[in-house]
Amino acid sequence: MSDLIRPPRGTFDILPEQAPMRRAVVETARATLEDAGYRRIETPAFEVTELFTRTVGEATDIVQKEMYTFNDGKGRSLTLRPEVTAPVMRAYLDHGMHKLPQPVRLWYASSCWRYERAQKGRYRQFWQIGAEAIGSDDPAVDAESIALLAGILSELGVGGLELRIASLGDPAAREAYREVLRDHLRASEGELSDEVRSRLETNPMRAFDSDHEGTREVMKSAPLLADFLGEEDREHFAEVLGLLDAAGIAYEVDPTLVRGLDYYTRTVFEFTSAALGAQSGVGGGGRYDGLAGQIGGPAVPGMGWAAGVERILLAAEERPEPEPVTTLYVATADESPATRRAAFALVCEARRAGITAQMELAGRSLKGQRKQSDRIGARFTAIVEGETIVLEDREDGESWDEESRSAAVASVLRERGLG
Ligand code: AMP
Questions:
Q1: Mean pLDDT of 255-266
Q2: How far apart are the CA of 352 and the centre of ligand 1, in A?
Q3: How much distance in Å is there from the Cα of 118 to the middle of ligand 1?
Q4: Which of 304, 309, 326, 331 could form a disulfide with 132 if both were Cys (CB 3.0 to 4.6 A apart)?
């Protein structure tokens, strides 16, 4: 099949055997978050490009090289969402959710697209589960949000988890700090990687993320943002840490933690898993008190996170799911229209009665149909021949004639407690 058209690089099919584990991830997130007052939201797969350039940030990797951007028929620039926080905030503002009791808590399970170097754990279309709590700047919102993600990951058996946390302060503190950091980098410009040097003006903090040896050396003596935070930001951060302590959630304060999106203020955090290779980030997020303003709304504080479904699956325990059970298999003894119609009526009748049923669709012989019924583990096999239905029960080995309409079969099953 060398001519077969393949899917684009960095994308993948989700096969039936993979569906149950994925469902378990989304279901665990749903149950945990909805129990805590979050409600599901789903935003469009694509948005106006400006939503991301203004919020994620012009100088970030995502905006500079990873977005799938295209023009629609009228020449408007649209972008497949590379992340979901900005769309959720847009929806919050668009639908007047500030009029609801605050904070408004929303969760999602959505696909995202980023044109990244594809490798294990890093794809060009991937899924995120995420949670956003919008409308409160209480440090307890930060701590609760982090605790909920910790709970989801541990319930799913994600191994070797570590939590790193930092505070980015407010934009003014960050800008003052950036200037000092730029000076530090400029002083050793010759030792930096080309990439860091080219972003020295626009995004100097990315130098903390570099694995270039010379850059790492220069960063060892770099000034830290933590020393530039204002009094209120420091208090906020101390309170978040105190709440995490109270909840028994272990963390490491990492003042070099840089998240690849510009909209963060104050708290940022990331969970990594030792069970993953190079792409060790399982999920992360932070506070984004300036995001609403960047979208053109009033100042509304917010806090949230996103975790990658594929990364969770790579790091989580295997949990085999039971195969779905079919109760009734409807076989046909001949191919006459009368028999086929009676069989079809029976399947529909059984389903209406709430009995899981399948019928023969592949033209197998009667022997082949019995085998198929075995294969799917159906307890009952109905053999239809014209008006006659013979119902066999695998469990008591008994079989009997039922010269009646298909409804009778459904009622027999119901009598046996299967309806
Ligand atoms: P971010 O929005 O970059 O903070 O990403 C949040 C989470 O999404 C990460 O911790 C990963 O688990 C996941 N993620 C981000 N980018 C990718 C990708 N290209 N492929 C798979 N998962 C990703």
A1: 84
A2: 43
A3: 12
A4: 304
Per-residue CA distances from 338 to 331, 381, 384 (Å): 13, 19, 10
Answer whether 259's CB lies under 8 Å from 268's CB.
yes
CA-to-CA distance for 159 and 339, rounded, in angstroms?
55
Distance 2 CA to ligand 1 centre (A): 32
Please give the model's pTM, rounded to 2 decimal places: 0.89
pLDDT tens by residue, 101-115? 999 999 999 999 999
**Torsion angle of the four alpha carbons 196, 198, 203, 207, in this order, in degrees rounded to the nearest 10:** 10
pLDDT digits (tens, 9 = 90+) for 310-336: 999 999 987 766 677 899 999 999 999
- Exposed, middle or buried, 287 (CB in 10 Å: 0-12/13-18/19+)? buried
Instruction: Report the nearest atom of ligand 1 relative to the CA of 306.
Output: 6
Q: Report how far ligand 1's centroid is from the alpha carbon of 227 (Å).
A: 29
126 Cβ closer than 6 Å to some ligand 1 atom: yes
Distance (angstroms) between ligand 1 centre and the Cα of 265 equals 19
Other CB atoms within 10 Å distance of the CB of residue 328: 25
The length of the chain in residues reads 419
Atom of ligand 1 nearest to the CA of 307: 7
Torsion sign, CA atoms 178, 183, 186, 192: negative
- Atom 13 (ligand 1) nearest CA: 308
**How far is residue 130 from each of residues 6, 202, 321, measured CA to CA in Å?**
30, 28, 24
